[in-house]
Amino acid sequence: xxxxxxxxxGTALRVDEVTVEIAxxxxxxxxxxxxxxxxxxxxxxxxxxxxxxxxxxxxxxxPAAGQVLAxxxxxxxxxxxxxxxxxxxxxxxxxxxxxxxxxxxxALGRVPHGRLLAAASADGQETVSRAMAAAGVTxxxxxxxxxxxxxxxxxxxxxxxxxxxxxxxxxxxPTNHLDIRHQLELLSLVRGLRITxxxxxxxxxxxxxxxxxxxxxxxxxVVGTGTPAEVLTPGLxxxxxxxxxxTLANPLTGRLQLVYADSSQEEQ
Amino acid sequence: MTVAVLAVACAAAVVGSVAVGSVAIAPATVxxxxxxxxxxxxxSTPATxxxxxxxxxxxxxxxxxxxxxxASLAVAGAVLQAVVRNPxxxxxxxxxxxxxxxxxxxxxxxxxxxxxxxxxxxAAFAGALATTLVVFxxxxxxxxxxxxxxxxxxxxxxxLLSSVTSYLVLRASTPDGGVSQVLSWLSGSLAAAxxxxxxLPALVLVAATAALVLLxxxxxxxxxxxxxxxxxxxxxxxxxxxLFAVTSLLVGVVVAVSGAIxxxxxxxxxxxxxxxxxxxxxxxPASALAGGxxxxxxxxxxxxxxxxxxxxxxxxxxxxxxxxxxxxxxxxDRGET
Lengths: 268, 337
Fold this sequence. Notes:
The structure holds two protein chains of two kinds.
Chain A (H helix, E strand, L loop, with lengths): L11 E11 L2 E12 L2 E5 L6 H8 L7 E6 L2 E2 L5 H7 E4 L11 H6 L14 H13 L15 H14 L4 E5 L7 H14 L2 E5 L3 H7 L2 E6 L2 E6 L1 H4 L2 H8 L2 E6 L6 E6 L7
Helix pairs in contact in A: 4-5
Chain B lengths: L1 H18 L7 H12 L10 H35 L12 H14 L10 H20 E2 L2 E2 L1 H25 L7 H9 L7 H20 L1 H8 L2 H6 L4 H23 L5 H13 L3 H25 L8 H24 L1
Antiparallel strand pairs in B: 1-2
């Protein structure tokens, strides 16, 4: 798996020395990342700048310096709609009291494709149906999004992102508030899509299990990139997260598994 | 389907509104008089000359103005609720009406200087636009406007401007100060409607609603939240500013001719969403028709309840709207628990 990224098919996402400043304060400093047809995890402590990096990718936040390139084209020099036809994002907007039905929400994925008076072309309808089927939300079509459970809502937004027919998928903490089964199901669904994916995750074991590569952010800078086994080492975890860690092989999958202890916990 | 039913109901309500009054005129007579004016060929009518004049010169402009004002307020409310993702938003929460009121009251009570030369509608319109601009600037921090700050800035401005209005009214409480004129303007009324008042508001309503229906997918995207809307290729900041400008234009031109009529912009979009769902391609046209229908019907009631005198229509919309608003609050509470 290591070093194979460049041979994979898919659209290349390159975050090139991106710096973000908000109100004169530097939040993210010269972050460089690449993804091409694989799933890249962005991990790091709270406040390390993970979501900020993603926001430059889906055009919520313009970098102060550096570029975000999709197939070597700067997403900030593309039109907003054109960029949204390449990159789709599942983000953390809170729910509101004014909600769409599931079908209406998934159909939003067609907004960047449609002419403005989107009299929902048959083609678009077809894409929406396929996206709903892929995310397993077809049965929820007429429900209000506000009435869904957290897991259902995440899958609805994944379906909405898929309806955009993106070549790059960006996910901000998609497993937040989900129970363990839904966490695993969602990430395995994302992996199965086989499109270039950049995902922030809190849970390092999920990152190890589902990401081809991970990048570790600490205080706005990348401090390590590579396969999970190369990067998520006890030394780095102690330095970045301040926890003692040991690595094991997951007895069920054989993949990297981390176990932790805080510095006050003595060995029995 | 809903839209067609509403359109028919609107037409019926307009005819009904013209038929009702101190001199009752049969609906068929009303229709024949209107047809005689609108159709290019001769239509025979049983109406006397006086009846024909009452229908065409007084009651029809009033009914049509009610239609246009109600529709404009409802469309503005539907748009604002979507852009700030807040079901309690309406044109009046953002200070638009209080801005219009201050300027209109100043024009009515201050009899010197520039203000004495400005007509009430012009002052009200300028006040509405200026207030919207100030609210938007107040809500902005580092180039970004968030829904929460917009609502707070709007509410704060409303209070501030209401107190200025009260001061102007108190100051004018001298003989011949025009206080009853001020109060009737503040309560909202369609009584002074004339054909000349209709043109601009009708033009703005049709143009704005057509443009907004074309932009409906963007409004739908706003419902999903700012971050999601941005990821869908919506330039959130610019589109929000543009939508705000359109709604303040809609509200400004109708407040200028009808005074401050509340609650239509709040309650109509909610009622409409319960029937047609949240897709703005349907919410906007249905809101326009339902808002017009509501105001025409309430105006009929305003003329009948204390006949031969009139209740200001703005007071009646509040009487109808406030209980609905409270019911809405209770309903959304239940959703949270």
